[in-house]
Design a protein that fits this description.
The chain is α+β, with helices and mostly antiparallel strands. It is 37% helix and 19% strand. Strands 1, 2, 3, 4, 5, 12, 13, 14, 15 and 16 form a ten-stranded mixed sheet that branches.
């Protein structure tokens, strides 16, 4: 297969939703990060063959948001641009799709990204109110319209929150937090373990911020009030288990274990990577960060969607004849602390690996000292369309900083799927 290289990447800071619309739309975020990446890479926008952007909930003004962002970044009209959606893995799907386009010889330089402005998730009219408005509009005479208007009831204005529905699986009727509760029960993950994991995520992310680990990938931005935003603003350096233990469960009241603090944050953000063929690397004298080796996808019961990384990692390791010991660093998106901990147990379980994953033996114990070493979504946030892209970018930078060879980035996907990407340093 044609080699595919990750040349460089850039992302916005991840901005925690705080009960109101964030300062940027999805297209704003994607444009800000993408323009910076083009400037950093030294590649002219005219050289980009294609743009692919992952996004779950673009606004009504962002139809085919990949095209909107591409044009706003200054990429020529002649370069096609499109949008992909695979729930939480949309940003990773963009990378996979870009790899395929390069490997098939259709493109040599592709911008692949992911974005989400979750704070701007739509608030909708109910079906009953839509039907009411339709009946008013369909009335032929003034008197007929008045008759229809007299049927109005204030209850018709009850809003429908798209984010709430988007985070609930329509097949099994469970929200994502409830699926985390299920796998926590299956693998006996207790509340203290979840809270300890959450605190670790915050402390690792805080340490990374203070030492400048994220500086190379984050594009500083200014909001509409002139405030500088240059770091993920949901990170809590003062996080501790004592504080977290006082919080009540959110999804399974009153006896659940999953709380707001040991779950990922509702956030806004965008991330891009620039992918290139061997031909483009030579033509533009590029200095790639890493080689993209493989991307694998797996499906499983939607009620246990959080175990998706275990399934996708198993597929990836098997396809590439590798073991856990062959991987230097790992990024697993922290949708929930319970979910990452359950994946660790599942991969180390002989029974689960044999009965569910179809393997001859357990994959082995994931080394936690090489997993999410700079924190994860519990601390930084999880803009759903962005995260799959961000973890691949950050993994590449981690491998480079550590002088390591090989890494895997993986995440669970609402609807019962998992995705995993294998990269190698050059």
């Amino acid at each position: 297969m044609t080699a595919v290289y990750l040349v460089d990447g850039a992302r916005t800071p991840i901005l925690k939703a705080r009960g109101r619309r964030g300062p940027f739309s999805s297209a704003d975020l994607a444009t800000l990060a993408g323009r910076e990446l083009l400037m950093r890479s030294g590649v002219s926008a005219d050289a980009i063959d294609e743009t692919i952007l992952g996004c779950v909930m673009p606004s009504e003004r962002e139809a085919n948001i990949g095209r909107v962002a591409s044009l706003r970044m200054g990429i020529p009209e002649a370069a096609p641009a499109w949008t992909v959606q695979r729930n939480c893995a949309s940003g990773m799907q963009a990378i996979d799709s870009a790899m395929n386009r390069i490997q098939l010889g259709h493109s040599d330089l592709v911008m692949a990204g992911g974005v989400e402005a979750m704070s701007r998730a739509p608030v909708l009219f109910s079906d009953k109110y839509v039907d009411f408005l339709s009946s008013v509009m369909a009335a032929k005479t003034g008197m007929a319209k008045i008759k229809q208007l007299l049927k109005f009831r204030p209850s018709l204005l009850t809003p429908v929150f798209a984010l709430e529905h988007g985070l609930t699986d329509p097949v099994v009727s469970l929200n994502m937090g409830q699926t985390a509760e299920q796998i926590a029960e299956r693998f006996s993950i207790d509340r203290p373990a979840m809270d300890e994991f959450a605190v670790q995520s915050h402390l690792r992310a805080s340490a990374a911020q203070e030492t400048g680990v994220y500086d190379a990938e984050i594009v500083p931005v200014y909001d509409d009030r002139g405030n500088l935003l240059d770091r993920d603003n949901g990170v809590r350096a003062d996080s501790n288990v004592e504080k977290l233990s006082t919080l009540k469960p959110v999804f399974e009241k009153p006896y659940g274990k999953v709380t707001a603090a040991n779950s990922s944050q509702i956030s806004d953000g965008a991330s891009w990577v620039l992918l290139a063929s061997e031909k483009a690397v030579q033509q533009y004298d590029l200095k790639p960060m890493a080689r993209l080796v493989d991307v694998q996808w797996a499906g499983l019961d939607p009620a246990e969607m959080g175990l998706g990384p275990a399934h996708a990692i198993a597929e990836l390791l098997t396809a590439n004849q590798l073991s856990i010991q062959d991987i230097d660093y790992w990024e697993i998106n922290e949708a929930f602390a319970a979910q990452v901990l359950a994946c660790i147990e599942a991969m180390d379980s002989q029974q689960y690996c044999q009965d569910v994953l179809g393997l001859n033996s357990a994959l082995g114990r994931l080394p936690v000292d090489r997993l999410n070493i700079h924190g994860g979504a519990v601390a930084c946030g999880h803009p759903v369309g962005m995260s799959g892209n961000r973890i691949v970018l950050h993994l590449a930078r981690t491998l480079a900083d550590k002088g390591a060879k090989r890494g895997i980035a993986s995440l669970c996907i609402g609807g019962g799927q998992g995705g995993a990407t294998l990269i190698e340093m050059l």
